[in-house]
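Annotated sample (chain length 256).
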Amino acid sequence: MPEFPRIVAFDLDDTLAASKSPLDPRMAALLVRLLDVADVCVISGGRFSQFEMQLIDNLEGVSDEALARLYLLPTCGTQYYRHSAGSWHQIYAENLSDDEKARALSAVEKTARELGFWESETWGDILEDRGSQITFSALGQAAPVANKVLWDPSGDKKNALREAVQALLPDLEVRSGGSTSVDITRRGIDKAYGMKRLAELTGVPLSDMLFVGDRLDENGNDYPVKVLGVECVAVEGWLDTASFLEELIPTLTASA
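Output written by the structure step:
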């Protein structure tokens, strides 16, 4: 691990917060403290509005100066936002074309129905057009965490769906997302792409970054960051991350 990482990057769901849930006050306070001693990046499959609800709106007492050191990469790094002059601004977006979106939506719905993964009881949208990413959520975006955990505990359903959809969309990237989701972006664009763009735009080399995530296994959507060579810390939930930060922050504070 870099002795004093200049950027500490995180996944969001099940790393900083429970799936689709706001930050716990303990985690929010730790992130505000971390922003005092390091730059922070959050990269996840959700759209920017999800980042607002789960992350930004819960950082109590954070200054504009600290927010300027918070880098947000929604939709697996296909978008990038920075804070300045009191508001958030989109720096780039690798948006899909209308044709790519239509083919992605058709392929994932057709395949999910054929495999028996198109559920009748759902909470919210099953299919989402996030501009730079098409997302399939088997139980809908607002499904209770307990139901999502039970739907595919082994990950076999998501992996089967991902492989079948990828075969239909060779020009696009199809990845396992959260606990019940599959994400589709332009080919070659994943969290590794987002981290490389972050290095380019900030001037901070990957060797000076640290990534914390819960899906660093080979089929997980955090795995591309590990393959990229960024030093990684694996966690199994936000409580693990909180314990890690309670050790890391004093070390960074002492070196500041």
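Annotation: The longest helix spans residues 238-255.
Annotation: The radius of gyration is 18 Å.
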